[in-house]
Design brief:
With about 200 residues, the chain is an alpha/beta fold. It has seven helices and nine strands. The protein is globular.
């Protein structure tokens, strides 16, 4: 795990009380990597929720399963691209959605690998995977759902907030942190009450 994962852990700790209010929650992490984030969520919220993790990389899937097992939490690990393995079964059913996407700006041809670069290669502005995923959010999140997205400045967070706002979501920057040459932030998106 790197600084971005540790920022996500701090966000979950900061949001713990409001997340506890979501009893019987369906919790999914997209791009689980080591599994530390979804495992931490499962540890702080307990076994009364359903936890799943998705990653396109087989090594990440194994790492996530090992992290969950070592911490004695039940996490369903799915080898898949983004959320495709869950639709339509979990249509508008996810209460807590976590995503630490591949956000590093890279040439477009580096995006879409199933190897280790899938963890960081984000394409133009580091947004190619993010931009593919954002239109799926209304089909994934439950009406009470919370979507936590980790971004860097190069991803143009204000543009992403505008895209999500146009889909009827409010945004809150939960935490910001500078790590080496990156300025990281995690944004929480929730359905705007007036659009329910």
């Amino acid at each position: 795990p790197a600084e971005d994962s540790f920022l996500f852990l701090d966000v979950l700790d900061a949001e713990k009380s409001s997340l506890h209010d979501l009893k019987g929650a369906v919790c999914v992490e997209i791009g689980s990597g080591s599994g530390i984030v979804i495992t931490h969520l499962a540890k702080i919220l307990g076994p009364s929720n359903f936890y799943a993790a998705v990653d396109v990389n087989e090594h990440a899937a194994v790492a996530t399963s090992q992290t969950a097992n070592q911490n004695k939490v039940a996490i369903e690990m799915v080898l898949s691209d983004l959320f495709s393995a869950f639709l339509p079964r979990l249509h508008q059913s996810v209460d807590i959605l976590l995503m630490n996407p591949p956000y590093v700006p890279t040439p477009s041809e580096e995006v879409g690998s199933k190897d280790i670069e899938a963890a960081w290669a984000g394409g133009i502005d580091g947004r190619e995977v993010i931009d593919r995923f954002l239109p799926c959010i209304p089909n994934i999140l439950s009406p009470r759902g919370k979507f936590y997205l980790l971004l860097v400045e190069a991803n143009k967070p204000l543009e992403i907030i505008a895209i999500m706002n146009a889909q009827g979501y409010t945004s809150t920057v939960v935490l910001r942190r500078k790590a080496f040459n990156e300025r990281l932030c995690v944004i929480r998106f929730e359905k705007n009450d007036s659009s329910l």
